[in-house]
Sequence to fold (292 residues):
Amino acid sequence: DAVPYVFPEECPACGSHAVREVDEKSGDMDAVRRCTGGLICPAQRVERLKHFVSRNAFDIEGLGDKSIAELYADKIIQSPPDIFTLEQRNAAGEINLAEREGWGKQSVKKLFAAIEARRQIPLDRFIYALGIRHIGETTARVLARSYGSIGTLHEAMAAAQDQESESYRDLNNIDGIGKVVADAVVAFFAEPHNRDIVEQLLQHITPEPLQAVASNTPVAGKTVVFTGTLEKLTRSEAKAQAERLGAKVSGSVSAKTDYVVAGAQAGSKLKKAAELGVTVLSEDDWIALIGK
Fold:
């Protein structure tokens, strides 16, 4: 006696039309129904803020999902640039974070220190944090290496609005970037609100160019997977280090994987490496291999 579920055609948060997009490769409709409201949708704005401060983006300790939702609801943080004016507004008496439930002087002090530490950030993490559709960590890194600076990327995307332009062809021809990704990046920078957000962020933040990739190291050209808990480096630091040494870091183990670096409590990836005969290294083995 079940009744088929009727999916909403309007977003319950903002009332914008909700659509199922067509996959260009397969021609099939997506299973997902998406709100078309973009940044006018309060639900999307909150989720974009959560993404902005997440571990692989700005990684701001003290701004978890719950804090972001509460600060958004109380109109203290409405967009990413507001994060970097918190201390100034708090000092001016416009807000008082220490008086909020669950907060205190010490936690507020730590938050301000965490924010201050992110005023300089690698370009790829800055791009990833913007929450551009289809842009994950790997693609953000590809864009960062290809364009070198946020200013160059910004200018190139403005020129790429014309799909017949050399800038659009250059973007589409980058290894790892296809038409779907190219169109998503161009569309993001075509939106005035998004450009305003980027320009406001750049008043508070300096995105740093990625370090040059080495080509004469023991791991140059090798595919590496990190798994388990590392003791001497965070996972993000280990990945960045490997990429600087010319290695390709993957999130999954396959027959093409050269090394699996296993820390404590390594699970399914370690098992997969054993099944495929992939070389497994401890954290100390890895450090010895790269000579650090």
The radius of gyration is 22 Å. The chain has a mean pLDDT of 90. The longest helix spans residues 105-116.
